[in-house]
Amino acid sequence: MKRPLTRFFLFALAAALPFALQAEPDLERGKQLHRQCALCHGQYSQGILGGKYPRMAGLPEYYLIKMIERYKDGTLNYPAMTVVGGLRNLSQADIESLVAYISLIDLDEVAPLDIATAPGDVEEGEETYKNDCRTCHGRKGEGNARKESPPLSGQYTEYLARQIEMFKRKQREHAGDPEDETFAEYSDEELRDILAYISTLDDK
Predict the structure, then answer these.
(1) Architecture of 27-110 per CATH?
(2) How far is CA 162 from CA 75, 80, 117, 157, 196, in A?
């Protein structure tokens, strides 16, 4: 008969075993998978000027995984992602390897970006950002893992503007809340000022 303490350790070992056996992300596999992403997002996932395709390089894994899962389950539907990118055919191991690779791309080393300051009142935008956006997106637009909020610093202004329009039209959910009306409360001028401020967050 096993003693209670022995049974406890055997149970703990069995519970921990699946985690111990999990493989580390395969960065070489991630690099290979990224070739499909690069068709739209660029060789280094730096995105495309004008923001049609956003920068992904260096974005945190928590956010990249969340977005891929939304495309896989149909919450978001964009053929360039689901068909060209082949996201719906990726295994969980593939996803983890891909996002690990993308998150480690350092654009400062391979393809430096300099987001031009957008039109608008930067000082007014800063005040609004600090009052309304900082809690979720970070003081310097670095994102917030606890809230699963993406970084904004270094992202194309045109891309961010399009996402705001999609939030306003209920084509995308803001903060995971289908009832969120955040952007409906801002005037066009206030939104322009916020974007102007965000466009300065990548300045060195």
Answers:
(1) Orthogonal Bundle (1.10)
(2) 18, 17, 17, 9, 14
pLDDT in tens, 20-41: 445 799 999 999 999 999 999 9
Confidence of residue 78 (pLDDT cuts 50, 70, 90): confident
* CATH top-level class of 122-198: mainly alpha
Task: Name the token pair of 62.
Answer: 């928590």
What is the overall mean pLDDT for the chain?
89
Sign of CA dihedral 124, 127, 131, 137: positive
Alpha helices in 76-185 (DSSP H): 79, 92-103, 107-110, 122-132, 134-137, 157-168
Residue spans of the domains in the chain: they are 27-110, 122-198
- Is the distance from CB of 96 to CB of 25 less than 8 angstroms? yes
Count of positions (residues) in the chain: 204
